[in-house]
Amino acid sequence: MAALLPPQRHEEKEPVSLPEKKRKKRKRTKHDPELERLDSLPWNSSLPNEEEDDAFSLFIGSGDLDGGFLSLEEINESEYGLDGPGVKKKISNKKKKKQKLEDFTEGSGEDVEADPAEGMAEEKNAKAKKKKKKSKKNKTKAVQQEDEPATVIDNKDNEEEEMPNEDETYPEFYEWNELRLHPLLMKSISRIGFKEPTPIQRACIPAAAHQGKDVIGAAETGSGKTLAFGLPIFQRLLEEREKAANMLEEKGEEAAKYAPKGVLRALIITPTRELALQVTDHLKEFGKDINVRVVPIVGGMSAEKQERLLKTRPEIIVGTPGRLWELISGGEKHLVELHSLSFFVLDEADRMVEAGHFCELQSIIEMLPMTKGATEGQSQNTQNCVTVSSLSRKKRQTFVFSATLSLSADFRRKLKRGSLKSKQSTEGLNSIEILSERAGMKPNAAIVDLTNASILAKNLEESFIECREEDKDAYLYYILSIHGERRTIVFCTSIAALRHISSILRILGINVSTLHAQMQQRARLKAIDRFRANEHGILVATDVAARGLDIPGVRTVVHYQLPHSAEVYVHRSGRTARASSDGCSIALISPNDSAKFASLCKSFSKESIKRFPLESSYMPEVMKRLSVARQIDKISRKDSQERANKSWLERSAESLELVVENYDSEEERVKNFKQKKACSVHLKKLQQELGGLISRPLRPKTFSHRYPTAAGVTHLIQHQFEELAKQKGDDNLVPGENKRRKMVVIGQDCVEPLQALRSAGREVLMDGKDMSQKRRNVENLRRKRKEEKKRLRDQRRKQKKQFQGRQ
Ligand SMILES: Nc1ncnc2c1ncn2[C@@H]1O[C@H](COP(=O)(O)OP(=O)(O)OP(=O)(O)O)[C@@H](O)[C@H]1O
């Protein structure tokens, strides 16, 4: 356990004898049961089998240091470039240190052109602060010169003063203390209110922030991976600033080299635009207290906005591979300064090696200057280099994170042997391993794999509904109407299916947002915002929303169509049951899906899965509504298709300066007109019919009209009832009559899917063979029915012919 403990910052200033209190504390942490639990966690069993002696299966402090964490004695700050040359260890009190840091931070903001959106307020603040600080600084300087000449720490009292006691400052957040984060980060953590680090944060932060290691991290969805790489980045930037601030007096201008300002320090690449924006927001939340600029660079962003953001010369950029490569290859000034990069992060790395991202990502990686040990000649952009300190040039850390990361035994063995130097030796490695290798992943990288055998989040309840393909709409409508509580995401594999169900649901009066890759970026963001804003929102999305989206309060994920891979299933389901909350997933399984579903369960080592409880007495009403909705949908589609075709024809003709003439005869035109009119009358009729149906709560067949007990009343309908009751009360407010007029909804069986599942879900054994057999049986049955129908049809025809012959 010692590996997680080495107090790097303490180490620097630590006196020969530690105070008794501290020693006890360290001893205590050494035997932290949580860390021991992590230590004993196995590698994901679904991944290739491990050799017993593999040190990379969550290596947290054993005697074998190869590829694992360094022990306390082995950490040499100078090796990681964390102490600038000639730094004298000084005694300074807490205030003085903070003051210096602030001075430096302020300075760093001065020559950075601010983003107009946020910049004005910042500029104002900075000016006011600057005035204040100037007078303060002068005072402090005077006091320092008189009272506190620079001395080497050798005395307990001073040491106690130097390190702020976080226990006292943030007593509720003591769980973070062992990670020894910078006080400003602790301030952010306390402001945001994260009581304790998540396991992945606990495991990654010491390795990444204090031991300067590269990290490959895998942990379940919603487990806080963003901060697992975000906090080490902030920690290092702050430490560098602090050191530069300490040197400011001695070295003057030169000190600034140790915390270069206005240069790119971290490049975080994510597979989707939404994820990049989300990671940016998450990090910005922490960057607030420490004046670190984090900006997103994603496809779909306007050139002006992009330019404005890059002009602020942010330290951290979060982007998608396509747009980043476009800018890097185009020689964008801020982005080509990749030599100053201290962190290169691949978030959701396994998704990025899929088609569509790989080439751009590979090109970006090829532009990265070689890290320690590589020949200078291999760096392609050295002529663009500005002078940066050895501190930031010395090493770049690479972080690779995902919930579904699989590394081959061969790659882990390679890391262990430290044989990752050759760029050519990529034989037998998968794409993610090749990219990690090319990105300069160091041989002693820490691999932290906290995924369990099933990889799925532990608070997730999975379930399924078996139904015919054509009944999926009905079951989806059933779930959303009867159990439509809290936020729900419905996943489709194809955009066509997404369009179909979102249209049907809208016709049925269910307000849904949609999200898919063919939408304009602005519309995509709007859809997410709308979904976020509605506590009971419904988002119908393709797999573009499967990864990383972090929207609190998503309680249900419906797999309308099964995804193509087990990984995507994990990520889709991971949109619920995030952090410490719980949620459920419901897969709609048609006979065609059953074999796929069985193999999915097999790959997660699932022996049984719950069948989602259904109340069949609701289905006749559901089917009735759906049938009308489908007819409306068909007519509207036909109509809009015709209009689209017509306008396309007109637009094309207009662009060619042609006149479109109508050659239809008068008779045809009248006929068309009549047809259209009949169609629109029919449509209106259907709409009226559906309006009548959906104006009432969805009721089971046995529902009594005389006693509305609210069976099947969703929150929406109950809300409508309440509104209605309120309205009626307001309309004719006669004193004394209130009681009689008020409509009361008695009882409520509208429960969340998770609640329904927990109280009534039935476990079904998942037997792959059984599922396949079932599928075969259904297919046989269908074939027989078809044959029977054909036989009957032929028979009828024959009889008809015979009858006609007799006549
Ligand atoms: N220490 C913590 N305590 C409580 N909540 C946390 C903590 N760290 C992060 N979170 C919250 O947990 C949620 C999930 O975090 P994050 O998005 O980083 O997860 P993730 O592991 O990257 O998920 P995914 O694999 O789906 O991308 C976020 O809302 C985040 O604010």
TrEMBL record:
Enzyme class, UniProt record, top EC level: hydrolase
Residue ranges of the TM segments: none
Catalytic activity field: ATP + H2O = ADP + phosphate + H(+)
Gene3D superfamilies: P-loop containing nucleotide triphosphate hydrolases
Function: RNA helicase.
GO MF annotation list: ATP binding; hydrolase activity; RNA binding; RNA helicase activity
Family named by the database record: Belongs to the DEAD box helicase family.
Domain Helicase C-terminal, residue spans: 459-620
Keyword match Transferase: no
Protein's name according to its UniProt entry: ATP-dependent RNA helicase
Keywords from the UniProt entry: ATP-binding, Helicase, Hydrolase, Nucleotide-binding, RNA-binding
Region of interest: Disordered: 1-50, 78-168, 763-807
Biased segments, Acidic residues type: 104-116, 157-168
Domain Helicase ATP-binding, residue spans: 206-423
Motif position, Q motif: 174-202
Keyword NAD listed: no
Organism field: Hibiscus syriacus (Rose of Sharon)
Record text about domains: The Q motif is unique to and characteristic of the DEAD box family of RNA helicases and controls ATP binding and hydrolysis.
PROSITE patterns per the UniProt record, alphabetical: DEAD_ATP_HELICASE, HELICASE_ATP_BIND_1, HELICASE_CTER, Q_MOTIF
Biased composition (Basic residues): 21-30, 87-99, 127-140, 782-807
Signal peptide: none
EC number of the protein: 3.6.4.13
Stored InterPro entries: DEAD/DEAH_box_helicase_dom (IPR011545), Helicase_ATP-bd (IPR014001), Helicase_C-like (IPR001650), P-loop_NTPase (IPR027417), RNA-helicase_DEAD-box_CS (IPR000629), RNA_helicase_DEAD_Q_motif (IPR014014)
